[in-house]
Amino acid sequence: MSDFPYHIPARRSLTTEEREIIRILVAQTAPERLAEIDELEVHGRCGCGKCPTIMFRGAPDEKKEGQGIVADYQGGDDTVGRVGIILWERDGELSELEAWSIGGREVVGWPTLDSIRPFGPAASK
After folding, report:
1. Residues 45, 61: contact at Cβ < 8 Å?
2. 38 to 2, 59, 90, 94: CA distances (angstroms)
3. What is each CA distance from 98 to 39, 87, 105, 112, in whole angstroms?
4. Distance between CA atoms of 49 and 121, rounded to whole angstroms?
5. Which of 49, 65, 80, 124 is packed most tightly, with the most Cβ within 10 A?
6. Distance (Å, whole) CA 53 – CA 74
7. How many helices (H) and strands (E) does the chain have?
């Protein structure tokens, strides 16, 4: 996992919450990729040890298509604050579900599923 130099190895299945968040993001931005979700397995988590960011696979032997954003959403409530959620892909495969703080508050959990919205004009709906 050399592409994730700041990570904690953690090999496990996705939690129900993680799987549903990914499903929401993929259904809205790349529905043709929904079948990929069932194949995901966590290989590591963020090195901060506090936030819920997870990585899905090890680094490839060689780069093919690079890295890009599949979905860039937000959510939150009074408990977790406003949380940004980015679903990344690397070399054509889903690679990371990242949580980041929108308001500067430490991120310690995922936002509720019903609060997840895209950034921009659609976010206010």
Report:
1. no
2. 24, 20, 17, 11
3. 18, 6, 15, 15
4. 33
5. 80
6. 14
7. 1, 7
Residue 115 burial (CB < 10 Å; 0-12/13-18/19+)? Answer: middle
Q: Is the pLDDT of residue 23 over 50?
A: yes
Distances (CA, A) of 26 to 41, 51, 125: 16, 21, 19
How much is the pLDDT for 119? 82
Counting Cα atoms < 13 Å in the Cβ hemisphere of 90 gives 17
Which secondary structure element, helix H or strand E, spans residue 83, and what is its range?
strand 81-90
> Which helix (H) or strand (E) element contains residue 106?
none
Alpha helices in 4-116 (DSSP H): 16-29
40-54 confidence digits (pLDDT tens): 999 999 988 889 999
User: Six-digit token pair at 3?
Assistant: 């592409």
pTM attached to this predicted model: 0.85
Alpha-carbon dihedral 94, 112, 105, 84, rounded to 10 degrees: 30
